[in-house]
Amino acid sequence: MKKNKTTHLMAGILMLCYAVVFLIITGRFVYVEATGKVSGMDLNKWAESKRTSSYTLHAERGKIFDNSGMTLAYDRPAYRVYAVLDPAYSENSDKPLHVTDAHKTAKQLAPMLDMAVSEVESRIEAGMRKKAFQVEFGVKGKNIYQSKKDAIEKKHIQGIQFAEEPSRYYPNGLFASHIIGFAKRDDKGDINGIAGMEKEMDSILKGKDGYISYKRDKYNKKLLNPDEVVKKPHDGKDIHLTIDQKIQTLLEDVMGNMQQKYDPERMIAIIMNPKTGEIVAMSNRPSYNPNQPNDVENWYNDAISTPFEAGSTMKMFTWAAAIEENVYNGNELYKSGRYKINERTGPVVDHNGGEGWGPISYDEGFQRSSNVAAAKLEWEKIGPDKYLQYLKSFHFDQKTGIDLPGEVSGKILYNWPLEKLTTSFGQGSTVTPIQQMTAASAIANGGKMMRPYIIQKIVDPTTKKVVKEKKPEVIGQPISKETSEQMRELLGSVVTGEEGTGKAYKLSDYSVAGKTGTAQIPREDGPGYMYGHSNYVFSFLGMAPKDDPQLMMYVAVKQPNLKPTEVGSEPGAFIFKNVMENALQYMNINPDMKKEKKTKAVKMPDLEGLTIEEAKQKLKESGLEAVVIGDGKQVTEVSENAGEPMLSGDKVMVLSDQPVIPNMKGWSMREVQEFANLADLKLETIGNGFATRQSIKPGKPFKKNAYLGVEFLEPGEKETKQQPSEVR
Questions:
Q1: How far apart are CA 196 and CA 515, in angstroms?
Q2: Which of 232, 300, 604, 691 is a plausible cystine mate for 667, CB 3.0–4.6 Å?
């Protein structure tokens, strides 16, 4: 049979094509075998990554402490909840370890996460359809603290697991929150500083993460020879602040009381050591709880970030400039009431409607806070150009350089004659409270102006070595020692003088040098200022004792709700007197006023080895109050260290050898924290204010490291329906 030539041709072509394809595929296999690469991808590395698990070992973020070592911020464990869906996870187990019934699991888990059952169920079902190993539950399934984790685990929900991850915690709630700020976790699991010291020192606090890697099977279980590699993390450095816990707590409590009573628009308070520049306490209202950063009314640290027209507290710098220029005669008379430099410039009027007090001396004008006296000193005695130089030498044209984020500088308005006049008594130009405190340190400190600072030192937590320590820094000397002494006498007359405006700020045991301020508030809907009984910023800048100031304090209250019979100084005076008097006594500063003291500084006695009755008697003799925890006969632990400075009337917690949970209703957060530390309990606080409910009933015995949840409420605030053990 004769062969078809076409058939032979086509067969040859096909064989040739097959041969070419075979050679290409074979060549490709040989290339891959030889190089181990496909499309630029290293197959060895790809396979290695597929069978290797690698996890970040998070560095512990540095702690933040007060000046005595009390912890203000630290990392504590939090958990992320997830559901295992892969049936292979349950191999070699007597019972299922993965989710088998999406609806049942959702019904049990949803209420614990405050989620809808349908939402949890849909997440699980979507994961099952995709044959995912596990699913998570969004924001509400993250940052779960120990109490919530324990409650979920008690339900034994099939397939539900937890992954631990660090979370930032602030044990004292709103305590110094604008100073400490807060940090939160980002989507990558890193904790980043968002505000305050957490933001300012973020790179120092962070540390450096490590990692762990090992070979695993498809179920993420280690192989017998896992080739494990571990790189240890380097923890962040600890930050020690200049803040004094006892003085800061006192300030927070008193400001909280005034907020409740007067509901002002804003409140600001700063306490400073004028000899060093150390900030001893600082607080603002509204404040916030850094554990609840989603509920913040006021982010700004108004003490350093909000310039405003200061009012008459600025007059101390006008008088200081006149004295330093040697143009001041306190006995010289001037005509008070109204002052006009020319026909084109509006008049300066005194605060009593421009009536004045007739011809009075400049010393009396300072006591009465006369605007006319300030304007005449600036315009006629010092001279506007020279006065501007003094404003700059007091650093009112620049930031103070305090080690906190968000500081801004005020603005000196000094273009027109009227602006130059009004600046002399605190109108027109703006300053921040910290700028005023910095400038006033020159008056309190013999003419030397100190830079304010709030970081005491930075410490390596591993070696305990001090990495960096702050030192007091003189940043100028705008006035002489003699001028500062004369100014303190004048400021003292504001508080003690017959015509002084600062009588409400007088202390029982210590002399005070200070100046009041009643600043007008610019209108938001047009030019000019607001009017009305409460529409002012009432302030006071004072130092004590007058002749050798150990503490200096600024307090400002904006638009308090005053009754017609109340004066604007009442809330500020209450804050200043209560905090300053007790702070000086706590610091063991000798009183310089010959008056019987209501409270006094005492030292904590040594109670080691005593019976409860002996301890109570010894505390009573020292002027301290014993709070006994339990029904035992012997003292086992005490909340304060022997020899520690205290104030008479302070409470001391004494743990007996048969401890039980006390009734904490009405306790402050500080008192609850002291008890938890004393009893070694894991405390979780909910809310702010005073204790209203607790997770362990009073009278119940407890073990160390037990969980204690306590709910706090501000006066008048309604209780939640959740129990403390269920509230995060």
A1: 30
A2: 691
Task: Report if residue 595 sits inside a domain.
Answer: no
Does the residue 596 lie in any domain? no
Q: Report the SS3 class of residue 94.
A: coil
Rounded Cα distance, 701 and 399, in Å: 55
- What are the structure tokens assigned to 446, written together? 């013999």
Q: How far, in Å, CA of 677 to CA of 192, rounded?
A: 27
Number of domains comprising the chain: 4
* Residues 146, 567: Cα–Cα separation, whole Å: 49
Listing DSSP states for 168-215 in one string gives: EE-TTTTTTHHHH-EEEE-TTS-EEEEEHHHHHTHHHHH-B-EEEEEE
CB 600 within 8 A of CB 586: no
Q: State the Cα–Cα distance between residues 251 and 272, nearest whole angstrom.
A: 13
In which domain, by residue range, is 351 found? 245-292+300-586
Is residue 588 within 8 Å of residue 600, measured between CB atoms?
no
Cβ-based neighbour number of residue 647 at 10 Å:
17
Q: Would you say 276 and 456 are in contact if contact means Cβ atoms under 8 Å apart?
A: no
CB 377 within 8 A of CB 318: yes
The phi and psi torsions of 691 (rounded to 5 degrees) equal: -65, 135
The pLDDT tens digits of the residues spanning 163-215 come to 887 788 888 888 899 999 998 877 776 788 899 999 999 999 998 888 777 66
Which of helix, strand or coil describes residue 670? helix
Tokens 């896992």 found at: 226
Return the beta strands (E) in 511-644 as ranges. 513-520, 536-544, 551-558, 601-603, 625-629, 635-638
CB-based contacts of 447, cutoff 8 Å, min separation 6: 477, 478, 479, 480, 481, 483, 484
Give the contacts of 509 (CB within 8 A, at least 6 positions apart).
581, 584, 585, 591, 592, 593, 595, 597
Q: Give me the amino acid identity at 716.
A: G
Active-site residue (options: 167, 312, 393, 493): 312
Rounded to 10 degrees, the C-alpha dihedral 115/121/124/130 comes to -130
CB 521 within 8 A of CB 400: no
559-606, pLDDT tens digit by residue? 999 888 888 889 999 999 999 999 999 999 989 876 544 567 788 888
Contact 433, 268 (CB under 8 A): yes
222 falls in which pLDDT band (50, 70, 90)?
A: low
pLDDT tier for residue 723 given thresholds of 50, 70 and 90: very low
**pLDDT tens-digit series, residues 268-299:** 999 999 999 999 999 999 988 888 877 777 77
On whether both 148 and 169 belong to a single domain, the answer is yes
Q: Do 85 and 15 have their domain in common?
A: no
- Measured distance CA(642)–CA(246) in Å, rounded: 17
Quote the CA–CA distance of 362 and 381 in Å, as a whole number: 12
Tell me if residue 90 is catalytic.
no
Concatenated DSSP letters of 513-524: EEEEEEEE-B-S
> Residue 431: which CATH number?
3.40.710.10
Query: What is the pLDDT at residue 728?
Result: 27
> Tokens 């007067």 sit at which residue?
262
Assess whether 77 and 218 both reside in one domain: yes
CA dist 279 → 172, 412, 414, 520, 687 (Å): 19, 25, 31, 28, 27
Q: What distance in Å separates the CA atoms of residue 71 and residue 171, rounded to the nearest whole number?
A: 8
* 123, 258: one domain: no
Residue-wise pLDDT tens digits, 432-464: 999 999 999 999 999 999 999 999 999 999 899
In a domain, 591, yes or no: no
